[in-house]
């Protein structure tokens, strides 16, 4: 066995198969001629091939399976012989004359199987005899396969309850005793393999052993199938003896595999009722055994058992499963000082899953697990290894998935402490998980303490954490993250204005500390949430004295002003200006003229100092005009000042067409339907005339630069404004002025320098059709329009 090359092994296997097949051939001839003597002789020679020590377990298995198939045929022959009058007892004696012990024992097991079936002797006696006899083979590989054969031929002949081989009394314990004895001996042989051969081949031996483990594990499966093994017998005999063997073998591979086998093959209710015994074995295992995986599997099985039916839950309470598991985990972690973080977190994660399944109402248990996890992680710093981080995320996500309510997580005092051990990237990931949970379950966060706790949990998204360079993050991802925070801000709500104001102040504190890059995303939702509160206050009972309450619109507007001011550090003047105008409208609804004026002033300052892009200016001026037109709160002086400014800005826009449109839009500032105080026809006409002059100038510029007249669209737009105010009853807009404008447009369109413009043509035709339609209406309207000729 000095040279163990793959080629040599193939040769030896081929030689073994050849020898086996030759002897099998002669054995078949003897079987066909019912020659018992020759059958035994050739079968013994055939089985002698299994005496080899040259093959690896894998190759030996190939040889064994061929021999196994032949032994099946031999067993059938023995059955036939007994039917023909051959005494089974004599046959049992006869096979023991085989020269070599290994063939002798294989033949003995084969005849023993027939002997049990004949029922000429109690099954328990024959089984006991066979299991004792097999001790004659102490070579690990040969012994394992021999005992595996014994297990295979006897498994359907055990004296079990309800079995045809059941004896008079205590037969189940005989069956259990037989299987346990065979298991114990097989385990000893399997463990002994580890200590054979040179140290340099340790890895190879471990691989070979793992290939053979199922031979040993099958015994536990057979035990679990014995009907007569009730809970008492399992507790008193089976588990005690199996664990004794597992602990005493002091072998890492055997302990890890067999503990897993016990958990997998025996029923869940048995595990639950014998939890203390089973868990008591864990600290006695070798330090190198991967206890975390085995223990986690046990907890996963128990969790699934608890989930299978609510009826089984009282069993868990009765045996105090949580306390026992928690205690066992503590002992295991204590016993293994060098257990990696992933092991610790995996164990607590499995315990948490178990607890959420069995004791969903016991938040103290959940917090206790998180607290124990914090204790074990303390002093370890941030988790470096990605698997550990992933496991912590799973641990923290479990309560969210179970309760579908962030409120529950916020009650867990140790929840944020566990998060502290995550690196910045994973903290963000966890924060996103929390926000998704809130959005999915539409959870409203309803008081400032909860908001404070929540923002502490998601601080990875709302501010730059130490050592976290923003540039590392992809711009698109950053926008997505901040949009999720913006959506979260809309989920903060309380019907009590006082509490809602506290929430707004809490959020303000957090988002203003979040750095300028985040403000354009987080400030607008906070402003609109606060404006919602102001609208609610406006609708509140007027009798509530303002001094009795802290949440007054005035106070909230002061806070809003501070928040919008913070945007100047970004800068995003367009966003800030829109927000000032929104606040001005809300102040208008609250009848707070000074506040509304202040917001307009701020918007105007931004327009003058910050908004320089011509397109942005156009958008901004139309927003200003539109908002100002809807304001009711201003006195004459304030309104004049703001209107004067707006018309001044309009006339100073860069492009003439933009100037023209902004100026004619200003005409609406002097005539508001529902305010009698704002009906100044003179100034409406002034604005429209000014717009006409600008449109004319634009036309001349086009003529000078392009050599052709520009579009007449501006004139048609102004005509529409004339008609609007004409219909509203502005006396200064006369039939003559409308008529002259129609003629001007007609002449322009027919002039030699006119540029064809189908859109303008359609617009003009549509305007003329409207005039005709109004004429045809008859009555006062028809009379009014009658004088206009189209």
UniProtKB/TrEMBL annotation:
The keyword Transport applies. It is found in: Membrane. It is a peripheral membrane protein. Pfam families: Vps35. Gene3D superfamilies: Vacuolar protein sorting-associated protein 35, helical subcomplex Vps35-C. Keywords: Membrane, Protein transport, Transport. The keyword Transmembrane does not apply. Its main location: membrane. Belongs to the VPS35 family. Plays a role in vesicular protein sorting. This is Vacuolar protein sorting-associated protein 35.
